[in-house]
Every structure is written in structure tokens, then in C-alpha cells.
Amino acid sequence: MGFCVFNKLNIINLKNNYFKSYLVKSKSSKHLLNIFRNNLNRLIQTFAKKYLVLVLLLFIYVIFSAFYLSKPKTIILFFIPCFGKEKLVIDKNYYSEIISDSISIQSLRFYVSGIYLLKNGKSIYQTKNQCNLIDISKKLRIEINTKSELDFDCIQFNIGVDSSKQVSGVMGGDLDPMNGMYWTWQSGYINFKLEGKSNICNTRNNIFQFHIGGYQSPNNTIQKIMLPVKNETNIIIRFDIKNFLSQIDLKNVNEVVSPSYKSVQISKQYANIFSIE
Amino acid sequence: MKFNIILISFILFISAITIKKGVQLKYPDYFPKPNYDLKNNPLSNETIALGRLLFYDAILSKNNTISCASCHSSYNAFAHTDHSLSHGINDLIGKRNAPGLMNLAWHKLFMWDGAINHLDMQALAPINHPKEMGESMNNIVDKLKKKHPYPTLFKRAFRDSIITGENILKALSQFQLCLISAESKYDQVKKNRKKFSDQENRGYVLFKTNCNFCHTEPLFSNYTFANNGLAIDSTLNDFGRWQVTKKSTDSLMFKIPSLRNLSYTYPYMHDGRFNTINQVINHYTKGIKQSANLATELKKGILLSSNEKTDLIAFLLTLNDSAFVFNLNFAYPK
Predict the structure, then answer these.
(1) Is A184 in contact with B165 (Cβ distance < 8 A)?
(2) Which residues of A are less than 8 Å from B116 in CB distance?
(3) What are phi and psi of B137, to 5 degrees?
(4) Residues A146-167: what's their mean pLDDT?
(5) Is A170's CB within 8 Å of B117's CB?
């Protein structure tokens, strides 16, 4: 109904305009044109009445197809743990020239949150509320589902759990406190956890432990990382543990397990071991 | 036709609202707005009942001997009265007195030093040993999966049969959120159902001038931290809030406890050093130890005659809530 009324009004308007601009034209041609217009008017009205449902369906179809034409796209981030040039494998012995001794890694996990895709320094896509636990023995990839094809040249993400998630109570999935990435005696997520062995560590079983976290200033350890990337579906991000350990005096610094100034320093050190393959 | 459609959608709308509403926390209108955000953990009767069962079940401890209720007994307003220092599964806990659990929805931080930032996360502290994080929570999940009737109860409460750490903690929170104390004589007076005696009225006035700044009505705490002039116990060296923030201005600051149910929650203070309310009052009148962080309200000490002390205590006793302490809904589930 509303549809028809709308049409009628529109046509009356057109008629008025026509009168104004063609006032000088001859009566007969005006008359002819008027007949034509009135017929057209009636034609549209009957068509609209008869095929109202059809027209509506067409309308809906156009809108929906517009949405579906922009196909959703999945971008996958692959995190590749490395030890220098080699791929890092759990419990394997690696040699480090810097400490002139061997090193092995037992566990390595960290949170990745706040992923942005950027073009020319401007954010064009951001993941909502996503916080992923990367674990060398379980999960090394993150899928990003964008609504449409994107053109980007840079990726940005945080190593760590953002502070709003730190104080909002218990959550499931990757943020479930059962994952061993939550401090129980003092609330807060462990953002980055690395445990391994080296003879250079004068500790029980020569173990070194880095449980890096803390979300309150001045001991906030969340680190933002920006890497230039090619516009591809698979983004391969290497992180080099040899590089990280070479920045640390492992003989003296081998157990950092609660939020402190030292944790902040260490978080800055692992922030620069990420690179794009 | 049109009318029918409108009617049906109206009915659907109303039922959607009522279903979503579920269970609400019940508290008097003079209480402030709760601090706990129920949006992330909407209450339901099934979940509350499950939380209660877990709270009383020793399955949560490594050797199946200690439950939450071992240290938080309902008959003591969920405090631990036998011991000045609760003894249990981890050395950190052994340093402190177990506080009563009440009106937890209004707390901002938990523990005497505020080390825990959310009620959901609190249970992890007694459950886990500090240096072996995560491991025993997994054990609990395994144990619960095998113990009747937990799988059915979890399914009923959370609509999926998987028992997770998240759901265990949410259920524990829901039960604890229900521990609301709001039926003391003080509350009856507020609700115009009873009247204070003259002595209680005098005590109320003294309370408002000397104590209300920290032990703020109607919850009887503002849930911030303060140094109330306790001398440090050199056998414990507990520096309170400082241990969390490492700021010198937080040294020897402790969370201000509520004064509700004092008759049930003795001994008092973070280390349970005082056994009677009398001793506490004497501390405030002549035991205050001066220090850099001592609260300014207490710097000059509190002057009270012995009559005034009895008046003040008479008022404090009106904060006992036997309806809360003996509420069968909070007691051991049969």
C-alpha cells in the first residue's frame, strides 16, 4: 500500500515540474505528453499492486546478494618457533655460542591479543575480544575471519592479555585459568611462559623459568608488536628463542616468576624476537 | 490475522524477558549497587546449588580432606574460629586469619592484601599451590567427572556436560554471592521494624564519629585498605598490601573488614591477634602504633570513656545477624 502511495506522489511532483519548465510549449504536445504520463502512472500502479510481493523479494535479493558478494575471508597467522636458523622442537638440545653450553626448552606458551591489520599506518581490521594462547606443543596458529577481501601491509598484535580481561572474572577457552597461565595467589595472567634447562643455570635440575606477567603499572608487561607483511592469506611469523636467550644473562637471571621490574625488562626483550618469514 | 501476530509476538517477548531475568540477588534498598557484574555469570538456582555442593566438598583439595567450609564455617559467618591463623594447604594461607564471607558482591578486591582482583578467581588461591599452578585444577575436573552426581548437576547448571575450570569457579562464585547478611538488628531498625535501645543509640553516634569513615555503613566497610595502627608481628612479617603493589605507601595496609557478625567471626584482625571485641576497642583507644602510613583519622588516637566503650560495643552487637548465620540455605547441603 505504502509503496503505491509513494509512487503516486512522486509522479504528481514530476507533473508539476514539467508544467513549470515547459510552460512555453504548445498545448497539443503538452496534452499528448500528459496522456502518456497518466498511462505510465496507471501502468506502474497496477504493476506494483500485482507484483508487490515480487518487487519486494527482488529488493531483498539485491540487498542480500550485495552482502554475499563480498565473500568472507580467512587469514591465518602461523607462529613458527625457532632456535637461530633451526626450527625449535621441545626437549631437543641446542648449542648456544653465547653461553658456550647447551640449552633445551620444555615449554613455551604466550598469549596473543588485540590483532590489527593496517594499511599505510591506518587500522582497517581489528579482532574483537579475541585472546589466543599460542603453545609450542599444542597450538601455533590463529585464524582471523574478515568480512571481506582486505588490502593490508602491516600486522599489529599484543603479546599478553589486555588489562580489561585481567579483571573481568573467570573466562573459558584459551583464558580458562586451568591452562596453567594464571597466577593463583595473586590475580593475573601469565603473558609469556618459557621453561627449559641449561647447565649454565645453577638451579635445581638446571632449570630456568620465565613466567612473565603483570598488568598494573609500573609492572605492565603487555607488549605491542608491529610487523610489515605482504597482503597474503597466510602470514608466517617466526620467533627466535635463541635471540631472546642471548639478551639474557642466563647464569644469573634464570627464575623470574612474578610481576616485577625485571619482568617488564624481559617482556621488552622477547618483544623483538618476532619477524615475518 | 494481524492481531494474532501481534499477540503472539507480545507473549514471546514477555516470556523471553522473564526467562532471561532468572534469579536476582536480594538485598535491601539502602545497600549500594553490587560491584560484581552478574552479566558474565547470570545466577540460576541450579548453579547456586552446585556451587554450594562444591563449597562443602573436600574433593576440591589434593588429598580430599579439606573443603572451603573447613576454614569458612557457616556457623561462624564463614570465618575460621578455632585458629588465629588458618592452617591448611599452603604456606601463604597459613599466615593469615580466615575472614568471614558475607556480602562478597560488594567487595572490590579480595584477601587481606587485595591480591585477588575478582571473586571468580579467588577460589584458585586455596585450591592451588603457588608453585604448581594449574595442575590441581585439572585434577579436580577429572575427579568431578567421575563423581556422581556432578556430571548431571553441571549439565543442568551450564547446559553442556563438559566440566571446566571456568564453570567450577562460576558456580562457587554464585553460591558465595548469595551469602548476603542483611537481617541484623541494625537492618531491622533501618527497615523500621525495630528500634535501637538508648545505649545502642549512643553507641551508634560514637560509631559514626570514630569508625564509620573506614567501616562504612551499611556494609560496615568501604572495602579499601588502611593501616589501623597494629604493630607488626615479627614472626610473620606480613606487610599486607605492599606485598602486592610493592609501593612503600602501601606498607602495612590491610583490607578493612566488615563489622557485621563480629560475635561469630573472632579472632580479629588479619592475623587473628585479638580474641574479644573489648581487646579491639582497647587497641583503638590506647594501642595504636604510630607509623608513616597510619591512617590520619587514627593519628590522634580514639578517646573513649569506659561507659562509651560499652555503648559502642552494644551498637556493634546489633550487627550480628543470626538469620544469616543459621540460614539453612547456606549450611551443609543434606
Answers:
(1) no
(2) 186-187
(3) -60, -40
(4) 89
(5) no
Side-chain half-sphere of A189: how many Cα atoms within 13 Å?
31
pLDDT of residue A19: 43
* A158-181 b/e (C-beta count within 10 Å ≥ 16 → b): bbbbeeebbeebbbeebbbbbbbb
The alpha-helical segments, DSSP class H, found in B63-134 are: 68-71, 119-122, 124-127
Residue with cell 608466517: A236
B220 CA: distance to closest CA in chain A (Å): 24
Mean pLDDT of all residues in A121-128 = 89
B2-181 and B185-322 agree in CATH topology: yes
- The rounded distance, in Å, linking the Cα atoms of B55 and B121 is 14
- On the question of pLDDT at A28 being above 90, the answer is no
**Angstroms from B115 CA to nearest CA on chain A:** 5
Please report which helix (H) or strand (E) contains residue A209, including its range.
Answer: strand A207-213
pLDDT at B19: 52
CB contact under 8 A, A170 and B128: no
Parallel/antiparallel/unpaired status of strands A94-96 and B225-226: unpaired
Domain boundaries, chain A: 1-70, 75-276
Res. A84: pLDDT tops 70? yes
Distance from CA of B246 to the nearest CA of A (A): 9
Q: Best of B133, B144, B243 to disrupt the A interface by mutation (most A CBs within 10 Å)?
A: B133
Distance CA B154, CA B116 (A): 26
Query: Chain B, 105-124: which have a CB under 8 Å from a chain A CB?
Result: 115-121, 124
Domain ranges of chain B: 2-181, 185-322
Class of domain B185-322: mainly alpha
Contact list, A217 vs chain B (CB under 8 Å): none
Q: What is the DSSP letter of A159?
A: E
For residues A58 and A223, which has the higher predicted lDDT (pLDDT)? A223
3 state DSSP class of A55: helix
Name the pTM for this structure: 0.80
A184: closest chain B residue by CA: B125
Report long-range pairs for B133-136 (Cβ below 8 Å, ≥24 apart): B133/A180, B133/A182, B133/A183, B133/A184, B134/A177, B134/A178, B134/A179, B134/A180, B134/A181, B134/A182, B135/A180, B136/B62
Q: Please list the pLDDT of chain B residue by residue as tens digits (334 residues).
A: 566 666 666 655 555 555 545 789 999 999 999 999 999 999 999 999 999 999 999 888 877 778 888 889 998 999 887 666 665 544 445 678 889 999 999 999 999 999 999 999 998 888 875 443 335 788 899 999 999 899 999 999 998 778 998 999 999 999 999 999 999 999 999 999 999 999 999 999 999 999 999 999 999 999 999 999 999 988 888 899 998 888 899 999 999 999 999 999 999 999 999 999 999 999 999 999 999 999 999 998 899 999 999 999 999 999 999 999 999 999 998 7
Radius of gyration (Cα) for chain B, nearest Å? 22
Q: With 0-12 CB in 10 A as exposed, 13-18 as middle and 19+ as buried, what is B15?
A: exposed
Please enumerate in sequence order all residues whose Cβ is within 8 A of that of A121, keeping only pairs 6 or more positions apart, or say none: A154
How far is A41 from A33, CA to CA, in rounded Å?
Answer: 12
| Superfamily of segment(s) B2-181 | Cytochrome c-like domain (1.10.760.10)
Rounded to the nearest angstrom, the minimum Cα separation between A177 and chain B is 7
